[in-house]
Amino acid sequence: MELYNIRNVSLHTENKLKISFCATVMESHENLNHNIDNIISIAEEIGIDYEIIISTNIKVNLNKNGVSFIYNNFKSYGAGKQIAYLKSTGDYIIVFDPRISYNIGISDIIYRFITKGEKKAFLYKVLIINRDLLKKSGGWRNLREYEDIDLFARLSQISGFVSYPDNNYSILNYKRYKKTFIDNILNERDAIISCNYSLNDVFILKHVSYFSILIAYLLSRISKNRPYKYGKNNYIIVIESIIESLILKDYEVYSIPDKVPKLKFTEREIKYLEKKSYLWSKVHKSINELIEK
Fold first, then answer.
1. How confident is the model at residue 64 (pLDDT cuts 50, 70, 90)?
2. Contact of 19 with 50, CB cutoff 8 Å
3. Helix (H, G, I), strand (E, B), or coil: what is residue 252?
4. What does the alpha-carbon distance between residue 39 and residue 23 come to, in Å, rounded to a whole number?
5. What is the pLDDT of residues 192-218, one digit of tens each?
6. pLDDT tens digits, residue range 226-241?
7. Closest to 154 measured CA to CA, from 84, 58, 227
8. How far, in Å, are 148, 208, 241 from residue 153 at the CA level?
9. For the whole model, what pTM was predicted?
10. Contact between residue 47 and residue 113 where contact means Cβ atoms under 8 Å apart
11. CA torsion through residues 282, 203, 197, 167, sign
């Protein structure tokens, strides 16, 4: 493993907390430089000791104060996130997407959650996870798709997590990176493992061809990564945890949004959830107020 351009920014604060902004870069991005500056601005606005750790399997030609780039030949986002987390030292891990430029207003929400000393996870445009909780869960596994669903299903069994209203949560997105035939199969294999899907589940949600699904499902049965099983699949567990937290308005302890955006699902996903999720059918009216197709 090669470690380069490592520096930490330390701001002296009364609460002596430290936060670690962590990300993974697996392909070049036109706006990477701008987006990292954006995270630095957010970190400075929060006003708590911080570091920025970015794992990458490509050479990144950036030299930024306070940003540590860790090079390693990993093959999945799950492995990359775990590397960044293990190299971090903060009390809270904040996972961000280096392809996104975030609104500076997110700093207030991060600050309020962290300064309450919550021993849980927070789901919003970024992921915030208490370090002790992340260690207890085992962190991320070497998975190409839905690695965050795999993690958050475990977190939901330990302490639960808070969902802050948003129209799209990145952990629910199927990335589809490297779209070769083999990559499609390996991506689908890891989606099956992460979500603990049955073959019927995969056919209903269908991200790739039926032939690729069959091969991926067979590979998932012999993979060294085994699905975590909790009575229902992990996709359902995470969706129900998100919906329950939004219905209960857990987020209002940290900040009350001016407007509550509706969470977007495809028609196929909604039909699947109506069929598979007990909570979805039980609180159908409340859910309809939270989502849109």
1. confident
2. yes
3. helix
4. 11
5. 999 999 999 999 999 999 999 999 999
6. 999 999 999 999 999 9
7. 227
8. 8, 24, 9
9. 0.91
10. no
11. negative
